Model the fold of this input.
Amino acid sequence: MTRIGFIGPGTMGRPMVANLVAAGHQVRCHARSAGARERVASTGASVVATTAEAVEGAEVVITMVPAGPDVLEIVTGSDGFLPVLPAGTLLIDCSTIAPEEARQVHAAAAGRGVRCLDAPVSGGEAGAVEGTLSIMVGGAAEDVAAAREVLGAMGSTVVHVGGPGAGQVVKSANQIVVAGNLQVLAEAMVFLRAHGADLEAALDVLGGGLAGSTALTRKRTALLTEQYSPGFRVALHDKDLGIITAAARAAGVALPVTALLAQLLAALVARGDGDLDHSALAKLAAELNRPA
Amino acid sequence: MTRIGFIGPGTMGRPMVANLVAAGHQVRCHARSAGARERVASTGASVVATTAEAVEGAEVVITMVPAGPDVLEIVTGSDGFLPVLPAGTLLIDCSTIAPEEARQVHAAAAGRGVRCLDAPVSGGEAGAVEGTLSIMVGGAAEDVAAAREVLGAMGSTVVHVGGPGAGQVVKSANQIVVAGNLQVLAEAMVFLRAHGADLEAALDVLGGGLAGSTALTRKRTALLTEQYSPGFRVALHDKDLGIITAAARAAGVALPVTALLAQLLAALVARGDGDLDHSALAKLAAELNRPA
Amino acid sequence: MTRIGFIGPGTMGRPMVANLVAAGHQVRCHARSAGARERVASTGASVVATTAEAVEGAEVVITMVPAGPDVLEIVTGSDGFLPVLPAGTLLIDCSTIAPEEARQVHAAAAGRGVRCLDAPVSGGEAGAVEGTLSIMVGGAAEDVAAAREVLGAMGSTVVHVGGPGAGQVVKSANQIVVAGNLQVLAEAMVFLRAHGADLEAALDVLGGGLAGSTALTRKRTALLTEQYSPGFRVALHDKDLGIITAAARAAGVALPVTALLAQLLAALVARGDGDLDHSALAKLAAELNRPA
Amino acid sequence: MTRIGFIGPGTMGRPMVANLVAAGHQVRCHARSAGARERVASTGASVVATTAEAVEGAEVVITMVPAGPDVLEIVTGSDGFLPVLPAGTLLIDCSTIAPEEARQVHAAAAGRGVRCLDAPVSGGEAGAVEGTLSIMVGGAAEDVAAAREVLGAMGSTVVHVGGPGAGQVVKSANQIVVAGNLQVLAEAMVFLRAHGADLEAALDVLGGGLAGSTALTRKRTALLTEQYSPGFRVALHDKDLGIITAAARAAGVALPVTALLAQLLAALVARGDGDLDHSALAKLAAELNRPA
Done:
């Protein structure tokens, strides 16, 4: 049993908390919104009014918030909780943020003797509910070892991928691949529809060969019905590609298809579809070929 | 037992012949090159000197040649075998050619009372050897039914995807998706290397989540070792994207990422890497970011 | 004074005829549509009912039709005029067609002792009316010399760019550059509008520096008013990019931005905007960023 | 006569100083490097050892440095000169920086009663030497009026394009258009070379029609000789596209071709060609189609 402070029990965070509680951990939660605080209460976690209360007495603190600036604010901001953490506390940030921001959090934590991991997750709401998230962890090996039981309650694939920030680097790579796998399915659907192919049969045979992918399996229904309910929101995937574009530029590498994928996701947001599932790349591909 | 004439026992065709023989069919083979004729002899098929001899007395004729003009020449050309086929013979073209060319073959066959299927395959040399190809079949339902036993000797996923040409349409969609899935892995590798990530761990965690794909599983070693031995040659995938680009244009649809993938494959060929495996998209992605 | 047979007096062809007549040449015209025949009558050219009559007795035959198959049909088709031309006649094709098709026309003409030039034009309806077209001419130097007076009546820039087909090659290059120059203006407008810049002032300053272009000067009003009346139709520019994409593939070269431009023009056509001026690339760029 | 403090007399800044001196202004210069200080001495400007000395007593202060962080450091940093400027001084930043950074400089200046303009320039070293720069100015109308004489000594096109930051917004649009105009010329050259066209004749005819551009005129020799000596360095244009990509994302707009241009410039830098002229996009286009 570990005493855990959890900040940010939203769409993803709430089922993660539920799995931590189910695994026998004692979890104290804080959420900014009253609605989120209410919804997480049913998991059996105790719900508190401030981040300070959430982290008080915690051996492990987990943050799961929308973006890098949110993480920096709640950890190192003027009201951030870092100063009140005892040395030796383990801080695990599961948010998806820029590798550079993750390294800032690591550095700030190190400056206070707090152990730190960046541990972004993949697998969507379904993976969070089932406890089958993939978790890519950056930080020191001994801290990953210490976190393994807690992380194992939330995910089935927990991999130590490198030092501070490496978890976010791998999450970026993950988001490149997912966006691309979705987009070529989107274009394949346009091609198939234009030629009057039997779509279900086509997706069957694609799935059985080298074109098969988890994206095809999971988004098959969305592609066939053209209903794109989240899932993982376009706006969040777009945010991730903003992080990736900037990180690629900072690292001095050119990624031509990734750059184009970033524009397609940005267009979806600009067109008002930011709240759809990211498989809605197929909606944009269709609309690009249809009178407005 | 079916009497089969088989034209084109190359890298893919030879193991397809071997599986047909192993399934108890009587196969007569013709290949243009002496080397190919020699190599196919060890499968137990009888090898003949001309296409006319190969198709003589056959109930089913299978063609497996590099490109559309080859199919048109051997079937409907001045020395083509179509005029000598008895009405009712079943012609199965397993080559990957343009949907429009496939429809020409269907029409010519219909004009002579010959039954016809376009049945391109996916799965690479490994799939051909193991008899686990995905076969996407276009044509009449009763002809697909008649072909099912023969096709089942070569592939484990045999799907009727629509009328004449539909097999090639779905194969095109397959090649769009495969090229895209490979390219985003290529760009992800550039990103990961630029940030010094643990590449094996990174691919593990990508494979376990929404980024997972058959391409990732099968090309993992190639991506890690940067050795791109075929497999499926860049030059053939490039040829396929030429077919797709033209077919998309004929159908009046815009496919932005597909168009960019076609350029990247064309660049690989222009740079002298046409004989590498198509996972060599990762070689181009790396070279784009490295002094010449 | 030269006796000229002119086939295809449409939007571009009619003012070209008018300038030939004004320069003192004797022009006999044929058009497929009755409307076109009527409109060209007012130029002072004589209008005839068939291509055969138009070319009868002509020293120079000029063709100006929509696409390659049209040229091949009227020149070398079953009712084509090539067989009735006396050896030594000069055939000038001003249509924009594939380099490969142009070379077929040259070869067919050579086979009959007919001299031949491919001479596509640039400059739009305005250039045709003013007689200021750019004409890029492929063929033998002595034939270009012989054609110079006639071509000079229609255009102010007449350049011999190489052997048979070279005119079409250069026209392709021209259409790549024009599409690209228009598209980056389109994206610049999106960027400027998103930031609330003074658009007229911005275009002034762009025009005065390294960003200046003929496209900016001629399409300035269209960009500012978002009214895209032709001009040069999207559908024709899209057709040209189909030619270019295929010619690049045949030549084995990769052109990434050109490929993307081809998709954007195809999307405009698919969205029902094929009859707008090609500056409507700015319409698509805007709509990509605006709720449907 | 105006007393001017000038910070950053490099490749562009030095001839700008020379023109200010030639127009009768009294200029005090500071450069970080000893070499730059030495080179600017021959213009007749007085050269001083610190930014503080340069701005002392100045009515107008001009900054012309590589990037946004440089501007922020020398203006508002811990040793920045802003605190020592008397209220009413006119600060003109001619550097190319992010619109957002420009607005930070404006806000900081306003907080001290200092008047401020963002006034990036276009036209390259040649334009700086000849005093024919295009200058796009953001800020208050009365401040632009007050600056007009000074700016007119350096540029021939001085346009007030909007409020604080608008100069940088228009400069971004300028850099989008320039990169695109260069890239399509690069791809046109690949196409022309692949088809064996007469390159000089081709560029003549392109220049005479709708494909004409200032980029074509100025970079013609570079394109024909494949010698890409600056001019304007790839690394700087790449930096600008980093600014633009981020500004487009912040504004929520998708710019597909611009995003691809950003990758091509990044690739040039990654390949070691950052110090070439930006027309070296043609070098990359050629190398993409040639064995490494």
Chain C touches chain D through 75 residues (CB under 8 Å). The first helix of chain C runs from residue 13 to 22. Residues 169-287 of chain C form a domain with the N-(1-d-carboxylethyl)-l-norvaline Dehydrogenase; domain 2 fold (CATH 1.10.1040.10). The mean pLDDT of chain C is 95.
